[in-house]
Amino acid sequence: MRRKPSVPADADGSDSDEGAEQELFKSPNRMKVSHQPADDIGLKGHIRDCALRWMGRKDNKAPFHLPSRETVKTFERSRHNSDGPSLDPLDPGTKPLKLDISTTPGTLWNKRCAVIFAREYMKLSNKKTQDIIDAKQRFVVHFKGLQRQWCKIGGANVPDQLHENAIAQTYAAKQRSRAKDLAKRRLKGALMHASSKHWVDMLEAGGAGAQSDDETVMQDGTAMAKASKMRWRSNQFEKVLRLLDALYLKTKFNPLGVATTRSFPPSRFTGTSKSQKQPVKDLPSNCYDKDWLDGLDEEDRNNLRMREEVDLTIPVALKEAADKYKRWTDGTPNKTTGTPP
């Protein structure tokens, strides 16, 4: 039988449990319990109560008022507040704040909901914070709790829908990343030659928004990027962008024409699908398709803030320089061979 460890005794012979306990609580390494300030707890509760009331719900088990998919898409296309979410705080039963609860707080629709909530909250006489940004962030944090409530109410198919939305958002994030990389490559291509540097301002103004979405497809064993058609871009603007794709490839070769890498961007071709991306503002007027412009009303044309035309004519020297790399942009070569241009 193992002996129980002896307990040290004080000088007077008594056990020192009480002294040891006091030393334990004096130790700087003991666990510290943090408590939320009462004001912070009160603010969270008030945010939850206001959200519940303004969303037209009686309690946490009440159903949610949700926007239709078409309504959300219309707002994402137009970006007009009149097409987005709305709220009547005096009569939320008739005009409640409708969250797109199956997505994330970062969508355009839900960001607008957070702004509306924060503005109405700051109008309250009994508000718990004087900072509108704090009110908005508190509402965004509360979004996850609302989503959990919605999952419990919605049934077994709700997690599947959330999963599908998560996949769609991941795909959208990848598209944005690819568009940024494409914009950088084309800008670098324009900087390669003196006769193309006058396009730099145009490319910087367009940024990733002027690049079409694409998806990777296989053709004859070669990975290619099938781009969607952007109706607002003029044909000449698209020719310039394709030219820059070829000019960029000069960075992949040394002065002797030998490839310095085995990694080449995929060849691009335009498919039949049409892009849903919004037109970019502040571009030269001849970057926009004339027929597309003719179909706009005066207000939409003014919102584009078009600049003066830029010369989109492709000089012969640039075309010849791009032709050297054409076989790397039309999808026909075996890019891994790095054959000199």
Major sheet: 3 strands, mixed
Q: Treating each run of at least 4 consecutive H or I residues as one helix, how many helices?
A: 11
Could you state the order of secondary-structure elements as H and E? HHHHHHHEEHEHHH
Helix content: 40-55%
Structural class: mainly alpha
* Strand ordering within the main sheet: 1-2-3
Give the overall pLDDT as a whole number.
81
Terminus-to-terminus distance: 86 Å
**Rounded to an integer, what's the Rg over CA atoms?**
31 Å
Keywords:
disordered C terminus; 44% helix; mainly alpha; 11 helices; 341 residues; elongated; 3-stranded mixed beta sheet
Task: Give an overview of the whole structure.
It is built from 11 helices and 3 strands. It has helices at 17-26, 38-54, 69-78, 108-122, 132-154, 157-190, 200-206, 235-248, 290-294, 298-303, 316-323; strands at 214-219, 222-229, 267-274. α2 (38-54) packs across α5 (132-154), α6 crosses α8 (235-248) and α8 (235-248) crosses α11 (316-323). It is elongated, with a radius of gyration of 31 Å.
